Amino acid sequence: MFRYIQKSIKPFGLKSVRYSSIISVHRNHELDNPNIPFEFSAENLKRAEEIITKYPPQYKKGACMPLLDLGQRQLGFTSISVMNYVAKMLDMPPMRVYEVATFYTMYNRKPMGKYNLQICTTTPCQLCGSDDIMEAVHKTLGIKPGETTKDGLFTFQEVECLGACVNAPMMGVNDDYFEDLTGDKTVELLKQLQNGKELSELKAGPLSGRESCEPYSGAKVLLGDKPTDIRQFTRSDL
């Protein structure tokens, strides 16, 4: 339907061979074809209408990205029916919506597992041991990047920087970040989810004991109970 030049990427480590056609070419199948009806639930329709009101009427197409995200959250992935529905709601040519959905990697163009595991392997995470996290996920779940477990519980993705570099290595699970990971902690996290624990029951953030992104040796600034009187450290004529 919308085909670009196919280009392979040489596999590295656990990476599987990927082609640009994975995200730029739509092929109908039983879970994703235009004949599958889609519309927002009553709750999401209200949210969509509120989102659209944030834009001038002549620029309501600016709501394309948040509406696609809303549709993905409802269905689980951005299907062709979701894209067509958003295009109709915003009076956009469907192709314009397809372009958005295939450009941004936040939109998943195939059915996903209940838990979307995104492991960052950009430089800071790799230097801090992201290879161990990749290996732990691969061995525990038996899948490679781009694959979903047979029970539909996990989808495994290797991604670029997710913005938690100071707490590397890290893994995004749906909307939550689990940071300061080790291979063992990753396995423990996956086992809890496999055993029926909901994501909301797990403590997200650093798993090393850090509260946030302070040094491992402890906080170094803003330690007093009262703000520092800057007059003690500057000239009076300043």
Automatic annotation (TrEMBL):
<protein>
    <submittedName>
        <fullName>NADH-ubiquinone oxidoreductase 24 kDa subunit, mitochondrial</fullName>
    </submittedName>
</protein>
